[in-house]
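Annotators were shown the component list below and the corresponding predicted structure, then asked to write short factual statements about the assembly.
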Amino acid sequence: MIISGIQKFTLLDFPGKIACIIFTGGCNYRCGFCHNPEFVLPEELAKISKNFIPEVAVLNFLEERRGLLQGVVITGGEPTIMPDLEKFIVKVRALGFAVKLDSNGNRPEILQSLIKKGLVDYIAMDFKTSLPEYQSLVGKWADEKKLQESIDILKEGKVDYEFRTTLICEIHTPEILEAMRETLAGAKRLYLQTFRSGITLDPAFKDFHPFSSDEMEDIAKLFRKDVGEVFVRGE
Amino acid sequence: MSDQKTDVEAEAVIEAKRTHCEVWTRVMGYHRPVSHFNIGKKAEHYSRKHFQETVAANNEFCEKYQFVAC
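Structure shown to annotators:
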């Protein structure tokens, strides 16, 4: 496990639980709007490679937090590209913590096996744009079939889950939103997130705009036709 | 041989495209080009370490938790 960062406390990131966040380094996507590029780009990771956190430090920390924290959020980067993710989750669970996994959904086989083994309590999957548009937005590693597979796995509802979408004015046209709605039909929960132009992976995205809160609410209404719960995460 | 030649040529092209790059910084409190510094200030400038939030935070975390007695 490449652990590139840790946030020791969060009330926001694990619904209903007090948790900490573990960031893994490296990602198979290159979303221009990514808000933590320092954990994605290899050249940025190289700068901090001597200061990655050893697994033992994280486990010591969690040992101390037993009875205080309830859960651990594993995010990134993209955690599912870590070959020893499962082993790490087993160790975390052995200490008595619930585990939430954030993923871009490009490796459904990992999600499937973790769900089957009952190793995750919550999965949050990014649904960034309509499936045919994925490659142009996040790079050539995006695989439509695999994404569809991940979406179907989550929809089965064997584990609590959410989809989430960061909405950007310049990217999410009405046609794309309509296509996304069709793909998500029957899902349980969707969070619509307001784009922030502060730190982005691709500088070009600094000039892109978020939707206004009224527009976000309109888009939420659109998705509510087919998705159980739709929430807006604002500024 | 021919490959090597193109390498040399390529290098020459790169060399020709290089331009002088003036670095400005404020080691002494106001902005000046580094090339105008005296030898001591230059040494001080090049030995500076840049602050990186992740590095600082990770170091602090490791110091605290890496060697907790089992």
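Statements collected:
1. Chain A is about 30% helix and 20% strand.
2. The longest strand of chain A covers residues 3-10.
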